[in-house]
What does this fold into?
Amino acid sequence: MRFLFSRPALLLFQVLVAVVLIGIWHFGSTVRIPAGYLSAKAVYPLDPFFFSTPIAVFERTWRDFATGVIWYHLGITLLETALAFAIGAAGGVVVGFWFARRQLVAAVFDPYVKMANALPRVVLAPIFALWLGLGIWSKVALGVSLVFFIVFFNVYQGVKEVSPTVLANARMLGMSERQLLRHVYWPSALTWMFSSLHTSVGFALVGAVVGEYLGSAAGLGYRIHQAEGVFDVTGVFSGMLVLAVFVILIDAGVTLIENRLTVWRPSTSANQR
It folds into this structure.
């Protein structure tokens, strides 16, 4: 049995989940459990030294934005994320289409693509830093290595999933290869592509932050690393909060673009009638 909710109702439920989780965190880090229940003395279920508190994290985040301390680091991380996302996604789309339309090329390079995808990205990070230095491009390269394969495999599969009947009818109507690409292959791959792009947003940010964490002089990853070095748990959680918020904002932007480019798709409600 399916339950359909309006967008405001769905948003309300999502906010309630966040409120409940933050409430549990707040309770566990501020309310002591009396002696005799968990230990011989009163303790916090979530020790503030290791988990901080929601209020402290929100206050630190607000202060960092109000004083302008975080803007420079945030700008660096977002620039690296945007470049990694754009380059990796564009490369994945182009190569995915190429491999799907050229079976011989796909067969020849198949083992090499699988080997490259299996390489641990954490191992690649120091190599990129050695090749490209500690500037933004080593972080961009790490992000591209994460985004490319996600988009590539989805676009490749999307093009291969084109209905043979639709393809045969289009060719019978006299469509050229360019028309097939625009009116048959491209619409088929769009759904798969945007599904991968939603995942790739997070991976692009992960690549940037991990690269900054391993070696940089600016960025949110650098700030998180500095906070960990002095056992500043509040600073670590504050950095993670900022990352989470901006991932949601970027993903919302991807959703807007997806809705604009896939207006031809029937709505969910129409499919359920």
